[in-house]
Design brief:
The complex is a heterodimer of chains A (about 325) and B (about 350). Chain A is built from 13 helices and no strands. With about 325 residues, chain A is mainly alpha-helical. Chain A folds into two domains: about 70 residues, no CATH class; about 220 residues, MetI-like fold. Chain A is globular, with a radius of gyration of 24 Å. Chain B has about 350 residues and is of the alpha/beta class. Chain B is built from ten helices and twelve strands. In chain B, the strands form two sheets. Chain B has an eight-stranded mixed β-sheet, sandwiched between helices. In chain B, strands 2-1-4-5 form a four-stranded antiparallel β-sheet. The chains are: A mainly alpha (about 325), B alpha/beta (about 350).
């Protein structure tokens, strides 16, 4: 088990190197190079740009730049932002709580709701409920998130005036839990809608597959009640694809939601990424890429461990 | 003892077939008609038989003759859209199973009647230890504590001839062979000492040597627990070895029913005769072709109005094509559905 984890972490190293190479390469391949924000600005003098280059080490050979940046990641020095010259890791970490809160609440709501809808749809297959749930899920999955976001703002913030349209707090109420919760409702709703739709589809098909297995008939033949059949027999067997899905979704918990955070002015990771993109803030973009990649690897590792814990046939090797 | 039935004395293979004792299981006119537009598939078409305590009735027939569907209908295990199709009467110790609610039926399954399936490889839950799977019905039906049920599970594993039951109880099914799994399935089915065990092709998926072991085990446990067994198989050799009585099914109906001895020595229905003639025998001239029944089992659409076997039958009379023969009593123990039965 410990050997498995160590081996998987070692295997992740080449993956991270690959991601870092791509991230680093993109910055240098982008039109205008890493300092496009300055070189394309006619008010900045050539000698100033040269000075900036030296400050950020961009005058050195590319491979030296890469090694410096890549080794810095391990020692906690993720570079500095172009604007303000702040440490990149600080900028990322200060956005993390907002994203964790939003993604955490959206994922929890969506998983509970999606599982319930999916299981009920599988148990009562082809019922009115199942048909409605299937149609609803397809509806939620085929409309873009920004449309739901704008509609939610239009209905609940503008027309009904029940909830604020964006931000985390009212002005002057920073730190108030109640204000925070009120601001959390709409973005959570919009995000959860799409995730619920995904989860309900996965849960439905996972349970449908399991419920027609021979061992479910055995459980019925020995008199196990429907509830116990569902919880004790179907659930552990259906959980595997769902845990794999959870492992894939874990990185979102940390990387945030681009569209939703932008529409609702939520100061999380998603919006940081969009802002950094607009400002050609390459050190931040590269840092966020690495940050997300780490959680992709961790998410899948955790999912594999969890699946092995449930299913005795899966050996961690 | 545990369970609903006290063990009865073992039934000798040559026991008299007529008895004043009320049968344990009494099936009357069981039908499963499946609408497959534009036809109605008469998969099980009016089956009637009795089963006494401690007795083994072999239900034999080709694939598609309705054996498994009969078993699932008896257990009320058919899933929607077939769940509501079975009609008729299934009296188990006087209770008509067909009239029970699903909740009441579920309380009887695994306790009064249980079932062993054909596929031991897939019939056990892969993520639950074997011990827990055996203990589950014990907790549910007999109200034993988890610990007492676990002990009972180990006792059952020992009873079905598994060495080192303590270790196997904690193991998962994927580590076990097919024969071991089928033993575990039998342990599950008999854990609450049901009065009726339905075994649907319990040995078909197993190696020949293991087949014999499983059949011996069933017979031995029957002697010990006194359960009646409905043994479903397409294999006449299995029947000859294990059953007291045999019912032969053809196209959804029982065409002949007799004690095992007289069925094999003096079959009356032409279909049964054909089946028996087509068994390879060691003393037969190996150069001669094995006799076979001409033609095929009729599909649901082509089933004739009269006897379903008439088109393939060498003894068919004009009447056979028009009128289906009832299961008639030929001797007190021997019944056959034929207008022109062979001599005994």
């Amino acid at each position: 088990m410990i050997g498995f984890v160590l081996r998987r972490l070692l295997q992740a190293v080449p993956l991270l190197v690959g991601v870092s190479l791509i991230g680093f390469g993109l910055m240098h391949l982008a039109p205008g190079g890493p300092l496009a924000i300055y070189t394309l600005n006619p008010t900045i003098q050539v000698q100033d740009i040269e000075r900036i280059k030296i400050i950020f080490g961009l005058d050195q050979p590319v491979h030296v730049q890469y090694v410096k940046w890549a080794t810095g990641i391990f020692s906690g020095n993720w570079g500095y932002t172009f604007f303000g010259g702040r440490p990149v890791l600080d900028v990322i970490l200060e956005r993390l709580p907002a994203t964790l809160l939003l993604m955490g609440s959206a994922l929890s709501v969506a998983i509970v709701l999606g599982l319930s809808v999916g299981v009920l749809g599988a148990v009562k297959r082809y019922s009115v409920f199942d048909t409605l749930a299937t149609t609803g899920a397809l509806f939620a999955l085929s409309f873009p998130t920004f449309w739901f976001g704008l509609m939610a703002i239009f209905v609940f913030a503008i027309e009904l005036r029940w909830l604020p349209s964006g931000g985390m707090w009212e002005l002057g109420e920073e730190g108030s839990i109640l204000s925070l919760l009120r601001h959390l409702v709409l973005p959570t709703m919009v995000l959860a809608l799409v995730i619920t739709a995904t989860w309900s589809r996965y849960a439905r098909s996972a349970f449908l597959e399991v419920m027609h297995q021979d061992f479910m008939r055995t459980a019925r033949a020995k008199g196990v009640t429907p509830k116990a059949r569902l919880l004790r027999h179907a659930f552990p067997n259906a959980a595997k694809p769902l845990i794999a899905l959870l492992g894939v979704e874990l990185p979102f918990l940390f990387s945030g939601a681009l569209v939703t955070e932008t529409i609702f002015g939520w100061p999380g990771m998603g919006r940081l990424f969009v802002d950094a993109l607009g400002m050609k803030e390459y050190p931040v973009l590269m840092g966020m890429m690495m940050f997300t990649a780490i959680f992709v690897i961790l998410g899948n590792l955790l999912a594999d461990i969890a699946i092995a814990a449930i299913d005795p046939r899966v050996r961690l090797q | 003892m545990l369970g609903s039935v006290t063990a009865t004395a073992p039934l000798p293979r040559d026991a008299p077939v007529l008895s004043v004792e009320a049968p344990l299981l009494s099936v009357r006119d069981l039908t499963v008609h499946i609408p497959v537009p534009p036809h109605v598939l008469r998969a099980v078409d009016g089956i009637t038989f009795d089963l006494r305590r401690g007795e083994t009735l072999g239900l034999v027939g080709e694939s598609g003759s309705g054996k498994t569907l009969t078993a699932l209908a008896l257990m009320r295990l058919l899933e929607p859209p077939l769940a509501d199709l079975p009609r008729g009467e299934v009296l188990l110790e006087g209770t008509d199973l067909m009239r029970l609610s699903e909740v009441d039926m579920s309380a009887l399954r695994g306790r009064a009647l249980s079932m062993v399936f054909q596929e031991p490889m897939t019939s056990l839950n892969p993520v639950m230890t074997v011990g827990r799977q055996i203990a589950e019905p014990v907790v549910r039906h007999l109200g034993l504590s988890t610990r007492a049920a676990a002990a009972r599970a180990q006792e059952m594993l020992r009873l079905v001839g598994i060495p080192d039951p303590a270790r196997v109880a904690g193991a998962y099914p994927h580590l076990m062979s097919g024969g071991m799994r089928q033993r575990a399935m039998i342990a599950i089915a008999l854990a609450c000492r049901p009065s009726l065990l339905i075994a649907d092709e319990p040995t078909t998926a197993l190696d020949v040597t293991v087949q014999a072991q499983i059949l011996d085990l069933l017979a031995e446990l029957q002697r010990e627990m006194g359960s009646a067994i409905l043994l479903i198989t397409h294999d006449l050799a299995v029947i000859a070895e294990t059953a007291h009585r045999v019912a032969v099914m053809y196209a959804g109906r029982i065409v002949e029913e007799a004690p095992v001895g007289s069925l094999f020595t003096a079959p009356r229905h032409p279909y049964t005769r054909g089946l028996l003639a087509s068994i390879p025998r060691i003393e037969r001239n190996p150069a001669a072709t094995l006799p076979e029944i001409p033609g095929m089992v009729p599909g649901p659409a082509e089933r004739p109005a009269g006897c379903a076997f008439a088109p393939r039958c060498g003894r068919a009379l004009p009447r056979c094509a028009e009128e289906a023969p009832p299961l008639a009593i030929l001797t007190p123990a021997h019944r056959a559905a034929c207008w022109n039965p062979a001599d005994g």
